[in-house]
Records
---
Amino acid sequence: MIKVSHLTKKYGNITALSDVSFSVKRGEVVGFLGPNGAGKSTAMNIITGYLSSTSGNVTVDGHDILEEPTEAKKRIGYLPEVPPLYPDMTVNEYLDFIYELKGAKQKKDAHFNEICELTKIAAVRGRLIKNLSKGYRQRVGIAQALVGNPPVLILDEPTVGLDPKQIVETRTLVKKLGEDHTVILSSHILSEVQAVCDRIIVLNNGKLIADSKSDQLGQHLGGRAVTLRAVGSDSEIKALLNGLKCVRRFEKNEAASKGSVQEFTVQLDASEQAREEIFFAFAGKKTPIVELKTAEYSLEDIFMSLVSKA
Ligand code: ADP
Ligand code: MG
């Protein structure tokens, strides 16, 4: 449904996106995960035709976003990071305005009723947008994306700035929309994309660093961690770990270290021999390992280690 090929975007000498390629099948709900500045909004602005790329291209249902913008855009509902709401319009007037703008063909009354029902804004349709709470405004933003019934929805950080109750409501709404739409949703929060998406694409520094099913992200990223307890000084153990190629990152577990026994959580690369390497390195320096076991390792840890590595 969406095909993104070799997208690169430069702002002067800042590379916001660097050779990003992926495709999204009809009906998939895909999460764009990445810290602030990763390039999520830039990618979404290019996919929706609001920004041109430096190189690479995007097609939506076979229509190139630059060569056939009308055909491509007709298929997309977009909630940008800052929704273009007009504060002095009522919700009804605003939806009307969007309807005209998109040249939508649906029977207006029934169409608006359906959208307002779904996004739970029926009660505020006569109110001025400037008098709505942030939560309601966000829902109006989603409602405008639904005008014209586009099969694809692109939602840029739809829960930012909402309170916990509104976050849950918005997630529920996105899940429901995902039942009959192709969705790309961005977020800098791992648990959010895990809760809502079938598939996760991780962006960092403008690069695509992972693309996998939500439940396989940990495996896909090839991360492993061990808990290591050894007898020695802090500095000896840190020096040993720093000297090992298989060690990606480590952290001392202060609470679990007592006397001369120090405990560390050590993140390893995917190499087979990582444990042996550690064992022999420590033995060689007469720093006995008293325990070495697989650590419980959350996806959050993997994500953090990935985005802090770059
Ligand atoms: P995200 O949405 O993941 O937070 P963005 O796509 O907004 O990331 O930004 C990606 C990078 O591009 C950042 O380094 C940001 O500072 C830069 N950037 C975004 N928009 C502009 C712009 N209009 N001019 C210059 N740099 C920009
Ligand atoms: Mg953004």
---
Amino acid sequence: MPDPNDLVAAAAAVRENAYVPYSRFKVGAALKAADGSVHRGCNVENVAYPEGTCAEAGAIAAMVAAGQTRFAEAAVIADSPVPVTPCGGCRQKLIEFAAPGATITMATTDGKTARMAVADLLPGAFDQAQMDNA
Ligand code: THU
């Protein structure tokens, strides 16, 4: 089981770069790919609000751009009273790239954490098996 502490620190560092003039809610995310490399993302908002992107989506894009398509461990952090949890859309996005047994650590900037299996983030997630007759 990978130690999530370094990954939470990586997420905390990139969180500082979040562009959040509308929500003022900075989020950082980090993924440890199967080859051990770490990929980071922060939320990037837009004046056209639905065009904003979540930190998790940014980290996934960075990982794929670097040539990695599987992560073993994820971390997400925000200045929230309880550990921040990925939104529904990001749960589907994370599952796409999660290695078997991948875990996610959700953290607050004041040190609270929660950890769970990525596979448990979205029961009933859409998957390729459902397209077999397409
Ligand atoms: N947000 C994330 O980036 N990740 C999460 O896990 C929760 C929400 C962002 C989206 C938006 O920029 C801000 O937090 C408030 O919803």
